[in-house]
Write a structure and sequence with these properties.
Length: 518
């Protein structure tokens, strides 16, 4: 042993590890953390949805690398004072931005158990892998996929979509493409999606080596669904000029307005043209759990692969993305890579092939399956389906409120759980952008924005199981108030709204500090 190693080792007492010698204090701290976090979730309505991070708080996280130890209780204090009050806000029922799920307290508890087990789900023979296999089988049943289907948890739908593109690529070019690259044949491959598709599809084509130009973004119909006629024409045109169509990515819930492509027609077209049929169902695919919504997903059962997130409408805490592939062998073809150090046995810990690492990129994988298994077992799919149905009913309610209010304008049909609207004003893009910032900073509600037909929209995606009609009412009232203040004095525009927002934010920050249960 070198002197340096001896000196470093000498810092440790005999038998010292990272575990405490006496667990009493840590146990008490753990119980307090659990109580505090349960209280935090239970009283979430009493605090602002989100609040701006004061500079002084941000500055707390510009420290030097901590070389010496701190007391866990002091580290926890930094969490309660500086992290928890300034989180994204998606646990709160007033959060309606982007597409964020609300999670659940049960999911949180499961996450704690998973961290305790510290399981690595890349492979090997242990029950956590069986839990993931159980969830894979449930997902297979949900979507009516055959027994030979495979699936696995990933970070999110962006990753699941990328992996689907890679499976489709290996399927069309053969396994040798993994060794030789996509070559000349790969350079002629083209994929298709609608103009409303999420940007991660373009990114997936780029990362998979085709380049984003190989993705055709097809026109939409007036309901924002892929125009099947236009899709057919683009495919025919590409074939005519010597290109080789191989993949169609349909959307089950577009990111802007929640439109669901005509999946049956896309499935039929893919069958006729021998194309891989992938569905990006990031949030919409779980609509399959609602009796009301499931018929709108008809055709999804024919997909070659489906990507979606349990952390959105499934209410599982982040992250819990999922990829389901109809033909497990094709899935494995795209990712399995033998290695001496990953040798499989028929007995012992290295048994139980195939392993999840054969079906994806990651070798180290957390136990995302546990929080999902807990959520599905605890609530049952009928209740989750009812929660999903209710968020669509709330979106309809918001649509009704917008239509009834002359100062507001609906900017897109409400297809699912997303409502895009705006306050009528002369300089509407700027005014509505400011209204959204004001709403977020006020702590009343947190929608986001998007642009539809060149017009900026306030975009509300109702995903959280805690959101109720009172949250919709509070949002509408606040939009009208902030909008009216802007319209009242165009000269004092910025000043007036900033004053209003500042004082409201100040009140909210004070009240959040007051209501901070930690
Ligand atoms: C339709 C759609 N696809 C893909 C994604 C990306 O999913 P993730 O954020 O889980 O990577 C989203 C995110 O909201 C989405 O709405």
């Amino acid at each position: 042993m070198t002197d340096m190693l001896l000196r470093e080792t000498a810092q440790l007492g005999s038998g010292e590890t990272l575990d405490p010698r006496d667990w009493t204090e840590l146990r008490a701290l753990g119980h307090r953390m659990l109580d505090d976090m349960i209280d935090h979730i239970a009283t979430i309505r009493e605090r602002p949805v989100w609040q701006p991070i004061p500079d002084v708080v941000r500055a707390q996280f510009r420290e030097e690398l901590p070389r010496s130890a701190s007391e866990p209780a002091d580290v926890y204090r930094a969490f309660t004072d500086f992290i928890a009050p300034y989180a994204t806000g998606n646990v709160h029922p007033g959060f309606m931005g982007w597409v964020h799920g609300g999670g659940s307290a049960v999911g949180m508890l499961a996450e704690m158990l998973a961290a305790g087990l510290n399981a690595n789900l890349g492979g090997r023979d242990h029950m956590p892998i069986e839990v993931e296999r159980q969830v894979v089988d449930w997902v297979r049943q949900m979507f009516g996929f055959p027994a030979e289907a495979s699936g696995l948890f990933v970070t999110g739908t962006s990753m699941a979509n990328l992996m689907a593109v890679l499976v489709a690529r290996t399927c069309v070019l053969g396994r040798q493409a993994r060794q030789h690259g996509i070559g000349e044949e790969g350079a002629r491959l083209t994929a298709y999606t609608s103009k409303a598709a999420h940007g991660c599809i373009t990114k997936a084509m780029d990362i998979a080596g085709f380049g984003s130009d190989a993705l055709r973004c097809v026109a939409m119909d007036k309901s924002h669904r892929i125009d099947i006629g236009a899709l057919r024409r683009e495919i025919a045109h590409d074939r005519a000029i010597g290109l080789k169509p191989f993949l169609v990515v349909a959307s089950a819930g577009t990111v802007d307005i929640g439109a669901i492509d005509d999946l049956e027609s896309v499935a039929r077209l893919c069958r006729e043209e021998s194309l891989w049929f992938h569905v990006d169902g990031a949030f919409g695919a779980l609509g399959i759990l609602s009796q009301e919504l499931a018929p709108r997903l008809a055709g999804i059962e024919y997909a070659d692969s489906i990507a979606f997130d349990f952390h959105k409408w499934g209410q599982v805490p982040y992250d819990a993305g999922f990829l389901l592939v109809r033909d497990g062998e094709r899935h494995k073809d795209a990712f399995a890579a033998p290695a001496a150090y990953l040798r499989r046995e028929t007995r012992g810990l290295a048994a139980g092939s195939e392993w999840p690492c054969d079906l994806g990129v990651d070798l180290s994988r957390g136990f995302r399956a546990l929080k999902t298994w807990f959520t599905l077992k605890t609530y049952g799919t009928e209740k989750i389906g009812a929660i999903i149905a209710r968020s669509c009913a709330l979106a309809s309610y918001l649509e009704t409120r917008v239509r009834a209010e002359p100062r507001l304008e609906l900017l897109a049909p409400v297809a699912l759980n997303i409502v895009c609207f705006r306050y009528r004003a002369e300089d509407a893009d700027r005014v509505n952008r400011q209204i959204v910032v004001n709403l977020q900073e006020s702590g009343i509600a947190a929608p986001s924005t998007t642009t539809l037909d060149g017009r900026l929209a306030i975009r509300c995606a109702i995903v959280n199981h805690r959101t109720d009609a009172c949250d919709i009412d509070a949002l509408v009232a606040a939009v009208l108030e902030f909008g009216a203040r802007r319209a009242a004095s165009r000269a004092d525009l910025t000043f007036a709204v900033q004053q209003a927002t500042n004082s409201q934010s100040e009140r909210q920050i004070q009240s959040s500090t007051r209501n901070n249960i930690f």
